[in-house]
Design a protein that fits this description.
The complex is a heterotrimer of chains A (about 475), B (about 475) and C (about 100). Chain A is an alpha+beta fold. Chain A has 15 helices and 17 strands. In chain B, helix 7 runs antiparallel to helix 15 and helix 9 crosses helix 12. Chain B is globular, with a radius of gyration of 21 Å. With about 475 residues, chain B is an alpha/beta fold. In chain B, about 40% of the residues lie in helices and about 10% in strands. The longest helix of chain B has 24 residues. In chain B, helix 4 links the parallel strand 2 and strand 3. Chain B starts with 7 loop residues before the first helix and ends in a 10-residue tail after the last helix. In chain C, a hairpin with a 2-residue loop joins strand 2 and strand 3. The two termini of chain C are about 40 Å apart. Chain C has three helices and three strands. By secondary structure, chain C is an alpha+beta fold. The chains are: A alpha+beta (about 475), B alpha/beta (about 475), C alpha+beta (about 100). At the B-C interface, helix 9, helix 10, helix 11, helix 12 and helix 14 of B face helix 1, helix 2 and strand 3 of C.
Chain lengths: ~475, ~475, ~100
């Protein structure tokens, strides 16, 4: 039987505020255990939460960017359960009145666009971190992460394959990064994903029983776990069994999902409105203020790049991965034109050097101005494309102006015919055997002579000129 | 007469005239504590050394002419208010060793106003009770009759003040925990409007109902204390940024032309005859002062108790989830795994009344019952609030008994939770509506037990409350007695 | 009966409390009496009445996104029943 896969994702994104959601402790990653905690995030007796305004603003931003309607009234609820990483015995979250609802984003897969519905986006606080002792019967609790602001983004069960889910996740991450509200780092846990997955016979309207997948800490793992889970469910159905509704953990090493038996007890979270927090009323003025400050989003930008600069879709999608990279590209094009050539340099040499050093585009030692100047030097024939590679490397190392590098290193292209002729004569004189072979018909040796001339001119000879003159002089005519 | 028997404003006069020093006052207070504390047992923790240091500092400030409204005045703090470096137990085993690393806002404010803290007072465990019998640290006794309860939950503060072990005290009031013990101990107890006094640093019982307020020997002192502790606090989301008037300016104003509502629902069967008579005499005194007393109705009064005993335990069940043996307080070492650690810690750490309320609250919020209990109660709460809004359209204040009976015997109601809950029947509505209320002494029973009358006013109308309470106090014709200890 | 012993056990588990058999019996009776008293509320028609969860209706209480000094771990951990290496230590959590 043919089955159809149904996937919905729940994404938790840590917001890039400086301080926690309900207290002033720092949200910075990497401090020593419990160094970023205070009486409030530790849930000591007598403390009270006060909401960080920026959390609301960031969440409105995400709501607008995903085409949600922003509710005029929302409140916080307490989700009650006991766990050592939850200091108050409840998590402050949103339940009946989330901030944003009924949105969607578009994804592009195999050239086609698809719309994925967003059910809701709500604000909540993160829990702490548990460290398990391998040899002793203890766990250790670090509350630094407790109270770091999160938004939970719940999708509709609109995805029909692990690939779609992967693409949706990447899109969502790109948007968050674009909005500068989340760093999107899955490995460090600032962007986390749980998946609900079920399968049903093709054509069937009712959903199958779903499993909830957790513990997938990379984009690759999300896709792998989903693929595994779809196969597992198919196998169960095909062998006449029934899928059980449960939570399953992805085991990266084994490449399998496992039932999470210890958490199978029925959840009864006893949600109720948090009496320590007051309702939030979001005026249309506030929404408009946030909307006006909203940046162009990745997909819109990609479409515009293709239309405006005439570059391939692939180039546009790479260049729009982050806002900073797109800005770098646009600024360079603004200075020197030649959108495709700029795209080649940015996507090629620049990104390669940056990736090698795991540097962000914002830390690039090369400025758009320098890239533009360098391209102008190629265009006006001062340097060759090949020499430009060397100039670029030096530019990256020293942040010097390309013209200065060319001058210092004497890299200006040799366009003087006499100089090139001299070099060719020297090459021919030094390699009489090869010359004889060439003239005997071994035309492959042409490239050898180009290389020799370039070597003698330290690569500065104008390649076209070298070509033309070599052809003439080698044949002896 | 010891200096410990005087009021804040009497002592202030003497301090200003350099007739007494703070050290002398504190000395008299501790003399009294040494003499009576083993019988009354008002305190969980004494802060004697701290108090004398504070007095010394106060005297040096006084010497420099820096006299704040509470400079050098010994005050007792209910042991529900976090004090940095001094244990804050909430009357519970589970917090018996908890030393907060921070001061609550009210503690800070009182200190800034020059107050000297003498100790932390006993209370019902987590403020759940009406008799101060549920404390892990033992029962506090009513100074007027040591066989009787002082009321609760702030029974330690009321008893300490009635026994002259301090000049004023703080309490917290969730369903009557300031006004009820004030009435039963013959002192003045004020519960301000919800949001008027910061809850930051007040160990939470029921967050939407809790409010800190003062216990004082007279109404003028109540105004002085409220001046010191009232005001917006950015550390609390439910704190209300409304301007704070000088409450002392309402002291001494007459109440001619005031309309005083007398709700018929508060004069019910089961109310003690002597209490009934004392409150009716109060009505006459008030009318004699030129106020108009009118019969009113608060139709949803009979539902207050049921609403309260759903909402307060529901909030409490969540507020008390943090006591799990992980971060502070008591942890049972009997458990073999995490689940057992949780259950044993909480079962050994909480007393029966706290466990009972956690059970009620957990049940009321649990899946399938939320609508029938918590939501229903919250809706009826809206109606109760509307009753008061309606009443305050025509009334300046409302007058009722504070409690249905005078202080009852120790142990009398311990086995019947519902009977115990009924002792808060006149004070609970105030908290549900978030309005201010004050209890003022209005007489004594034949047996010499104090009786209190309660005034309620609209949101942020503490000024009116103090005005009418003070006018009444000045003309009540009740002799000022002291318990014979 | 509003609440059975089974329910008492379920609620106790949710609240992480445990009781002896005797206590369970006693609680079941006491909770029943209390819940029966709550039945009174069913007399009130609350159709269309908004539930009141705050005593005073205010909204939008915010703090600005400003970092303050955290507690030094030695102070925050001073009350910990069991700690090690600046972490709170608990019986092992099995997932």
């Amino acid at each position: 039987m043919a089955y159809e896969t149904v996937i919905g994702l729940e994404v938790h994104a840590q917001l890039l505020t400086d301080s926690k959601i309900f207290c002033g402790c720092s949200t910075k990653f990497g401090a020593g255990p419990n160094e970023h905690t205070c009486q409030i995030c530790l849930g000591m007796p007598g403390v009270l939460p006060v909401l960080n305004r920026k959390v609301v603003e960031f969440t409105i931003r995400m709501g607008l960017a995903t085409n949600c309607s922003i509710n005029a009234y929302e409140n916080f609820a307490r989700k009650n359960y006991f766990y050592p990483d939850l200091p108050k015995g409840y998590q402050i979250s949103q339940y009946a009145h989330p901030l944003a609802e009924h949105g969607h984003i578009d994804i592009v897969l195999n050239g086609g666009k698809k719309r994925i519905g967003i059910t809701r986006i709500h604000m909540e606080e993160d829990a702490g971190k548990l460290i398990h002792d391998e040899r002793n019967p203890w766990s250790y609790v670090d509350f630094n992460r407790t109270g770091v602001p999160l938004i939970e983004i719940v999708s509709e069960p609109d995805m029909r394959s692990p690939e779609e889910a992967g693409e949706y996740l990447r899109r969502l991450r790109d948007i968050l990064v674009y909005l500068e509200i989340c760093d999107g780092n899955m490995e460090e846990g600032s962007f986390r994903c749980d998946a609900n997955v079920s399968i049903r016979p093709k054509g069937e309207a009712a959903f199958g029983t779903r499993a909830e997948l957790k513990n997938m800490n990379s984009f690759r793992n999300v896709q792998r776990a989903l693929e595994y889970e779809v196969k597992r469910q198919q196998y169960i159905l095909e062998s006449g069994g029934e899928v059980v509704q449960e939570t399953r953990l992805w085991d990266d090493a084994q490449g399998q999902t496992h039932s999470m038996r210890s958490k199978e007890e029925a959840h009864d979270y006893r949600y109720f409105p948090d009496p320590d927090l007051v309702p939030i009323m979001i005026s249309s003025e506030w929404i408009e203020e946030v909307r006006r400050a909203l940046p162009e989003l990745p997909l819109e930008k990609q479409d515009r790049f293709v239309a405006q600069y005439g570059i391939p879709v692939y180039d546009a999608s790479v260049l729009t991965t982050t806002r900073a990279l797109a800005d770098f590209y646009e600024e360079t094009v603004k200075l020197c034109g030649k959108p495709k050539i700029v795209s080649n340099w940015v996507m090629g040499d620049l990104l390669r050097y940056l990736n090698e050093q795991k540097r962000d585009i914002k830390e690039s030692p090369v400025s758009p101005d320098h890239v533009a100047q360098m391209i102008n030097l190629i265009e006006d024939g001062t340097i060759s494309g090949k020499i430009a590679k060397e100039v670029f490397e030096e530019m990256y190392k020293s942040s010097k102006k390309p013209a200065d590098i060319v001058k210092e290193k004497g890299l200006t292209q040799i366009t003087d015919e006499g100089a090139v002729v001299g070099a060719i004569e020297e090459a021919m004189a030094k390699n009489p055997a090869q010359l004889a072979e060439y003239r005997a018909g071994k035309e492959k040796l042409f490239a050898f002579f180009v290389g020799q001339v370039m070597k003698l001119t330290k690569g500065k000879a104008n390649p076209q000129l070298v070509n033309d003159l070599l052809k003439k002089m080698l044949s002896g005519s | 007469m010891g200096l410990n028997e005087l009021t804040i404003h009497e002592l202030q006069d003497k301090i200003k005239k350099k007739e007494v020093t703070s050290t002398e006052i504190v000395t008299d207070v501790f003399k009294r504590i040494d003499a009576v504390e083993d019988r009354v047992r008002s305190f969980t923790t004494m802060m004697k050394e701290y108090a004398f240091e504070g007095a010394k500092k106060a005297d040096s400030e006084i010497g420099k002419g820096n006299i704040r409204p509470l400079t050098g005045i010994p005050i007792a703090l209910k042991d529900i208010m976090c004090t940095r470096g001094y244990r804050t137990t909430c009357g519970s085993h589970i917090l018996h060793n908890f030393v907060p690393p921070y001061d609550g806002t009210v503690v800070k404010k009182l200190r800034d106003e020059g107050a000297v803290f003498v100790g932390k007072t006993n209370m019902d465990e987590f403020a759940m009770g009406s008799s101060t019998e549920t404390s892990y640290f033992g029962v506090t006794r009513n100074p007027w009759d040591l066989e009787r309860i002082p009321g609760g939950s702030s029974g330690g503060s009321a008893a300490a003040l009635a026994a002259d072990e301090c000049i004023a005290a703080t309490g917290s009031d969730t369903g009557g925990s300031i006004r009820q013990p004030a009435a039963l101990c013959g002192v003045v107890g004020l519960k301000p409007t919800y949001g008027r006094v910061s809850r930051y640093g007040l160990v939470a019982f029921a967050s939407s109902l809790d409010q800190i307020g003062p216990f004082t020997k007279d109404v003028e002192d109540s105004a002085i204390m409220l001046n010191a502790i009232a005001g917006y606090d950015p550390m609390e989301s439910t704190s209300v940024p409304t301007e704070v008037p000088d409450y002392r300016s309402f002291i001494g104003k007459d109440i001619k032309g005031f309309t005083v509502g007398i709700p018929k629902e508060y004069f019910i069967e089961g109310i003690d005859a002597e209490v009934d008579a004392a409150v009716k005499r109060t009505i006459q005194v008030i009318e004699g002062l030129g106020a108009k007393c009118v019969a009113i109705s608060l139709p949803h009064t009979q539902y207050c108790l049921a609403v309260y005993y759903i909402i307060a335990p529901a909030e409490a069940s969540s507020n008390l989830a943090r006591y799990d043996g992980v971060k502070y307080g008591y942890r049972s070492t009997d458990g073999r795994d995490l689940m057992e650690m949780y259950k044993k810690t909480r079962s050994q750490g909480f007393g029966p009344e706290v466990k009972r309320r956690i059970m009620i609250g957990t049940y009321a919020l649990s899946s399938g019952y939320y609508d029938a209990y918590y939501k229903k109660a919250s809706q009826v709460r809206t109606l109760i609030k509307r009753d008061f809004q309606e009443a305050f359209k025509t009334c300046d204040v409302i007058l009722t008994p504070t409690t249905p009976t005078p202080a009852f015997k120790i142990g009398e109601k311990m086995d019947d939770p519902l009977q115990m809950y009924l002792s808060d029947i006149f004070t609970i509505s105030t908290n549900l509506a978030g309005i201010p209320g004050i209890s003022v002494p209005c007489g004594y029973t034949q047996g010499g037990l104090p009786i209190g009358v309660q005034f309620q006013a609209g949101h942020f109308q503490e000024g009116k409350l103090l005005q009418v309470a003070h006018a009444y106090e000045q003309h009540s014709g009740i002799e000022r007695r002291r318990p014979k200890l | 009966m509003k609440i059975t012993k089974d329910q008492v056990e379920y609620v106790a588990h949710l609240a992480r409390l445990e009781f002896s058999e005797e206590e369970k019996e006693k609680f079941t009776i006491q909770l029943n009496n209390i819940l029966l008293y709550m039945e009174k509320l069913n007399e009130v028609d609350t159709t269309g009445v908004e539930p009141e969860t705050h005593a005073i209706a205010i909204q939008n209480a915010f703090r600005e996104d400003v970092v303050w000094e955290s507690l030094p771990p030695e102070l925050s951990l001073a009350n910990a029943p069991d700690d090690s290496g600046n972490c709170y230590r608990v019986p092992k959590v099995i997932e």
